[in-house]
Design goal:
Elements lengths: L1 H15 L5 H16 L22 E2 L2 H11 L20 H4 L13 H11 L5 E6 H12 L13 E3 L4 E6 L8 E7 L4 E8 L9 E10 L2 E8 L8
Antiparallel strand pairs: 1-5, 2-4, 3-4, 5-6, 6-7, 7-8
Helix pairs in contact: 1-2
Amino acid sequence: MKKKWLILGTVCLALSVCAGCGDWVARMKENWEIAASEAFSQAETETWQEMPSADSITEGTLSPEELAGFESFLNDVANNGFLCSTYEDVRQADLNEILYNGAGLEQQPLTDELRQAYEAQAGEIFTDTIRLTTAQIDGFLLEKTGYRFADFQPPSWWTYLEEYDIWMTQHGDTNMSGVVCDSGLRSADGMVTLSCHIPGFGDGASDSALTVTLRETENGYQFVKNESAENTLSE
């Protein structure tokens, strides 16, 4: 619990010195201050892309076919970034990692004006860039988590171009990690808990064990938790 308050305190301090984000950051700071004084609320919005139908999945241990479906889901570019940081509440997830590859969202055109605005704040562009509007990120997070952009810590690697209401960053190759779903459980309340691992590469590299919790909605699944502790999934 102390760790959570420390995270919230750090976020509020960071937001207080953020320049150029305007009213959007003010609203974000207010949301985090509310979160610091109240328990996190249950997400009210339930949306997500299509996954195996709820009618086709029974409560209990997931079948190999069901696991294969979830494995494909987690390895999609729109979802894989949610596995690149661990969190007990999805609002603690690292947006830098989630949006690193653009999360499958349509990119805004890199016009000369946008390039000049970015370089004026962040320096010369040397690599590929990702360019997303606040509305795009907000809708994406609402769909995948049930929470709004303002409920998350803003992505610190990104530059906010207020004139265009666009978030922009440079990035390298990819942060995609192939994940394998080993087993899973489905509970009566619609929660799915997946015991997964990311294979290690190179001599002596060990696998990274993850326990991913998803919430079933009318339209699919939303991310809830991504924990790294092993042996947390029991029959």
